[in-house]
Structures are given as structure tokens and as C-alpha cells.
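Marked as duplicate of an earlier ticket. Keeping the data here for the record.
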Amino acid sequence: MRQLNLLSYNVQAGIESRQYSDYFVHSWKHLLPHPERLINLARIAPLLRQFDVVGLQEVDAGSLRSSYIDQTQYLAAQGAFPHWYRQINRNLAPFAQHSNGLLARPRPTCITEHRLPGLPGRGVVVAEFVLDDGEVLAIGIVHLALGWNARRRQLDYLSQLAHTYPYLVLMGDFNCGCDSRQLRNMVSRSGMSGLDCELKTFPSWRPRHNLDHILVSSPITVVSARVVDYALSDHLPISMCIELPEGVCLAESPVSATAASR
């Protein structure tokens, strides 16, 4: 596999939003269970099946509001992904467990959780995949802070992380657009590419802001990138097809204990 199809999707814990007023009218769904939540996730699953690696933001790890269903595990099963992982970043059990989620068809050899600077509740989970040249392809799923000061520190952290991997993908909800000086500085310092002002994902019913991004390190080629018109959350998903350098591809290897699906 030299090419991988990636998707990043903030699923808002399975809550469908069609207009700004839904934030107020349906605010109770962020704390209490509702049967439409699982129906909405079941509608999201067919989209995910088209991709090799999926990064999820705002998934619940199994609390009262999700009817104690781990949404990452549920989407992995519905999308027929053999490997999955969720990182709980804000644990408000029993009411909510805010998480990042990873779904993968290729087998990760190692998964690492990073707690991002700022107030507790933000993180990046990094999955490593061995390449046949002995190097590692790392794919990180992120969800950054709303506040600009915390987000600046988190982008600095990601910039440092980028220098530890020869092949790196960072995807997720960055909560800032390509006009953000902080984000542009991070991209410049890390040598990553993929920032596209035309890929607007928020709000899903009238997308005007590009808050969701997929960034890749320089040895990786972006074959194509697009926003997917799949408005089942307040964000639209963003997809990218990437290609590894000539002569480099993913190598099959046994899964380690640290990368076991969970």
C-alpha cells in the first residue's frame, strides 16, 4: 500500500445539527441519552467504510449520554475496521467521556497518547505503522482548544512532535482556519503541507470556516483532498488521499500489546 485514503470527522457525539438554534434546542443531548444518537452514528458508518484510516473527534467512550456505548468501538464494528482505539481526554463519568477515536484497516504497531498543553481535556493520539524501508508512518488525531492562548501552545507542541517522525499525518479539528497566524506558523516550522483555505467544514449546514485539516510531512504526497458533503454533525468530514514516496509502502507486521484494539 503506497496510497492511503484518510478521513477526519468531528461527529459531535452522534448529535445531528442542521442550524445554529440546534445548539440550544438540543443542548440536553450532550448530557442525556437519546435514541436518535445511535441512528445517526449508523448513518455515518457507511461513509467510513470507504477509507483506510479514520480520525474521529468528539466521540463518547461509553457514558450515560451515549447509553454506555463506546462510539469508537461501535463505528469500528459498523465500518468493518479490524483495529480501533479511543483516547479519553475529558472524563465526566458517568455523564460524558469526550474522546478522540482511531479506526484503521492496516495494523498499527504502536499507539501513543499525548496530553496537550492548556487546561485538561485536549489530546492527540498517534498510531505508528511500519514501512518496508524500516521507517515509521505516524498518524495523529487531534482536537485543539477553543481559546487562542491554549491553542498556540498546543500547535507549538505539534510542531515539535512533527520533527520526531520522518512520515507524519496530523488530522482533526484544529478549531482554527488557514487564516490563523498560529496555524500557519506551525505548518511553516514543521515543514508540513495540506493546508487549504477552500476546504470549509463548519458549520455543516452552511460551511464558511475551515476548522478541520489534514496535514502531511514533506516526504508524503497529497494526491487529492476534499470536503465530503455528509452533514450529520455540526462539522463536515474532510478526506485526503496520500501517497508514500516511490519504493516505500506499508509493511505488514504483528500487532504489539500497545497497539491492541481497544
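See parent ticket for discussion. Confidence is low (pLDDT under 50) at residues 254-262.
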